[in-house]
Design a protein that fits this description.
186 residues; OB fold (Dihydrolipoamide Acetyltransferase, E2P); alpha+beta; 2 domains; 10 strands; five-stranded mixed β-barrel
């Protein structure tokens, strides 16, 4: 089923998805999200889930895909992308680990493997990429730009999701993922 996240509360460990074709809300448990490789998900994020009916209602059993939340027309780009004129997809992906992230402050930092410089992560970048929060030590894949004040994340992906997709992309993909250099993500 395709739909979007109505809300997800990381503290409670669950939230709900609204299906595009209507019907009852679909329970999204934190374990289903973790199995996808994320600890959080932003409200409004597009999702595709495998769900089944239980005595208590519809429940997601697997998260299959996440897409960017819909942005209202004319909405300004988030601060991390101000002045960036290129295509995010053209930036090389890099493996990183979250140093810290404070949702209340709206930002945090990650360290790219093999590079001592901090990479700034803005909350709006996270939301656009389908995250609501990041945990210290969490492995992520970033696309990084050089901003006025230093390195900034233009895109954040779950490390598990990136590598799961690499494993499914062809017969040699499993060996590619296992031989991948620490500086890149697939």
């Amino acid at each position: 089923m395709r739909g979007h996240v109505k809300w997800f509360d990381q503290g409670k460990g669950f939230g709900f998805v609204v299906a595009d074709e209507g019907g009852p809300d679909i329970l999204l448990h934190a374990n289903v999200l973790r199995n996808f490789g994320q600890n959080s998900i932003a409200d409004g994020t597009g999702v595709e889930v495998a769900a089944h009916s239980t005595a208590k209602g519809m429940q997601a059993v697997e998260l299959l895909r996440i897409s960017e939340p819909e942005s209202p027309p004319g909405e300004a780009r988030e601060p991390a992308l101000a002045g960036f004129e290129g295509r995010i997809e053209d930036l090389p992906p890099v493996a990183a680990r979250v140093k810290w992230f404070d949702k209340a402050k709206g930002f945090g930092f990650a360290n790219v493997f093999g590079n001592p410089a901090d990479v700034f992560i803005h909350i709006e970048t996270l939301r656009r990429c389908g995250f609501a929060d990041l945990m210290p030590g969490e492995a992520v894949c970033l696309r990084v730009i050089e901003g006025e004040r230093g390195l900034m994340a233009a895109e954040v992906k779950s490390w598990d999701t990136v590598n799961k997709n690499a494993d499914r992309s062809g017969p040699e993909a499993g060996s590619r993922a296992s031989q991948m250099a620490p500086s890149g993500c697939r």
